[in-house]
Amino acid sequence: MRVLFIGNSQMYTCDLPLMITTLANSAPPDQPRIEVGRGILGGRGLQGYWEAGEGKGTPRAMVAAGPWDVVIIQEAYDIGGSAFPEYAAKFDELIRSKGAKTLLFATASISSLYPDGFTTLNETQRTWGRERGIPCATAGYAWMTCLGRTPDNEALLDFYQPDAQHPGKKGSYIYACLLYAHLTGGNPQGLTYTFPHLGGEIVTAGEATRIQQIAWQQYQADLAALR
User: Fold this and answer.
1) pLDDT digits (tens, 9 = 90+) for 145-169
2) β-pair partners for 200
3) 75 to each of 88, 92, 189, how far by Cα in Å?
């Protein structure tokens, strides 16, 4: 399976595409392996990715350079009042024209906006995707299930980098497990939680099991939201 990632630092902080490849490689031999491409630009959202033009290495050029099976598009955290619908539609039309499928990726927000900012970011994209028949991996909701409605500050920040804005290893593992389910239709239960590029084991065995279960449940909820 060939998958293109279009996004910002939510994707590159822990190299989410490489995490997905590593997860897929740990699955049984009869399950898909995933080859990834990157059209990642920091500090921007969909409008910024589109307005970067069509030069070499830009998101639009990467879509055109396929073929891809799936293209994942990720909006910035400050979606409120943004041009999300317009630029999500532009990317979806381009992706479809190249014979690929679009997958929306709704991330966590910055820690200071928990939980309302998470809800806005995820529900806006889920609702838009439902209207167009496009699945949305609502990873922000998966974080909220892991954390609960009112986590203490230590538990919340455990999912982040020290800047309290970008996902840390644990937060990125939630992203990876949910995206794996969306890409393959497979349950991430039992897949690896060891990533050499991140220094080895990034969560405990118990944490990995819980995150995998939550990711699978969120994937099923995401599919149900399309109906």
Assistant:
1) 999 999 999 999 999 999 999 999 9
2) 195
3) 9, 13, 27
